[in-house]
Amino acid sequence: MAHSPKRGNKLQSGVRSPTAHRTLEQASSHWQEYGSKHKDDNRARVAARYQLEKDGKVRAGDGKDVDHKRALSKGGGNTKGNLRVTSAKRNRARNFSRGDGG
């Protein structure tokens, strides 16, 4: 088994950090872009849930998830044809198995 260059929270002596080549500005820009994309995706998920709550298909605290048949990360949208109600367990298992999260 390969050994990790990390020991606890510190890098071993002589091992470069994977982001050592980035300037502070580059690193800051990267995380701003990363955070912005995830905020946009979260807004889309909240909007999808609201849309189906308005249609009476889900309620707050009902244990159901609003699933995107084609994931947002794969170009799917919030059209009614791309949304479906599933149990939280099933939706999260599906997302985990396809590598979208878990």
Task: Give a verbal description of the structure.
- This protein has 2 helices and 4 strands, in the order E-E-H-E-E-H.
- The protein has 102 residues and is an alpha+beta fold.
- The longest helix is centred in the middle third of the chain and has 31 residues, at 24-54.
- It has one domain (26-98).
- A hairpin with a 2-residue loop joins strand 1 and strand 2.
Helix content class: 40-55%
Rg from C-alpha positions? 19 Å
> In the residues, how many domains can be counted?
1
How many helix segments? 2
- Globally, the shape reads elongated
Relative strand content = 5-15%
Question: Residue ranges: pLDDT <50 for 5 or more in a row?
Answer: none
Short description:
By secondary structure, the protein is an alpha+beta fold.
From the structure above, extract its key features.
single chain, 102 residues, two-stranded antiparallel ribbon, two-stranded antiparallel sheet
